[in-house]
Amino acid sequence: MRRTGLLGLLVGSACGFVCLAGVAGCGSPAVHLAARRRRAAAPPLPAGALPTGAALPQSLVLQGPIRGEVRSAYATSCGVYAGTGFSAVLDLSLPGRVETLRLALPNFGGPGRYLVFGGGPVQLASANLEGTYVARSGWVSVGAGGDGGTLSLALRGAGQTETLSGTWSCSTPNAAYSPAQPPSGPGYAETLIASGAIQAQVGQAVVPGTDLVGGAPNCGLFAGDKFNLAMSLVLAGQPYVLQVEIPQYQGAGWYYPALTPADLPINSPFAAAELSRQGGPAQVGRIPGDLWGGVGGDLSIFAGADHGRMFIRFVDRAGDSLILSGAWSC
Predict the structure, then answer these.
(1) How far is residue 261 CA from its own chain's centroid?
(2) pLDDT tens per residue, range 242-266
């Protein structure tokens, strides 16, 4: 499976917003469709128009320059993404147009309420509407399962205030993957143990000859100072892709996975780790939840940069966690 832009979401600020796109954009094997934007020169959209796919129910109220009730939306992202944290991008259906809402929780630790702190350097939640209105106060909550919740936001833009409140949803509950073909390619010996939400032993992984992540080798240096490790492995009978990217490789040594660089002490060598199911969504518009972002632990790389050890904790959007530990080689 070829994926593009898996960890291109790495940002220097934990509060940054990214428009997620591409197959398995930002690391997910789910299909992410490009958001449809309003354009001044474009003809008006029909009332309630949305991109092709599943229209998810919403119960949101906008009050301000953009006024109206939102009863449906299409989600282009929904989950925990390495280097970014929790992200939900929703195309909101309004009469005659679509507005894009982006929610980001860079310090995501599972379902709960996350506050907006006035655009400061460290935020528990951030949001914007059409890239123009930015949340200055309020909160975003994520419910059990991580595929929706409630919010109450005051957004500012162009000297005006927009309020948004109500219930949001970014994925079909219990969305499933279609079957995936078993990975093929050179096999490498591993001594990895998965514990927690998924329990398994991994004695072998496949590192295909073609790149799993566009523009990056499956095992080695690229773009001058970056290192990438990507392999297919089987956990509890299901194929997964494990990827760890080091944006500033400094040679053999220790690197530390986290959701965002801001989660680590200053000057710590950051790594973005992700574990994702292979296989496409069962239906267009569904974003399954088998996507795990690395939130802690360590990765050691030995001399030769083709083997080492890891102890990485991952979390998914439902707040479940697993640990992948042991010796790796590629």
Answers:
(1) 15
(2) 999 999 999 999 999 998 888 888 8
Which burial class, exposed, middle or buried, applies to 225 when counting CB atoms under 10 A from its CB (0-12, 13-18, 19+)? exposed
262 backbone dihedrals φ, ψ, rounded to 5° = -65, -15
CA distances from 168 to 91, 138, 142, 146, 228 (A): 11, 15, 9, 11, 35
**CA 199/CA 161 separation, integer angstroms:** 48
Query: How far apart, in whole angstroms, are the C-alpha atoms of residue 138 and residue 29?
Result: 32
d(CA 271, CA 295): 10
Over residues 271-285, mean pLDDT: 76
Q: Which residue has the tokens 């940054």?
A: 16
CA 311 to chain centre: 21
The CA-atom distances, in angstroms, between 81 and each of 69, 104, 123 are: 29, 10, 17
The 3-state DSSP class for residue 261 equals: helix
This prediction's pTM:
0.80
Residue 135's CB is within 10 A of a number of other CB atoms, namely 28
Asked if residue 173 has pLDDT above 80, the reply is: no
Burial class (CB in 10 A: 0-12, 13-18, 19+), 37: middle
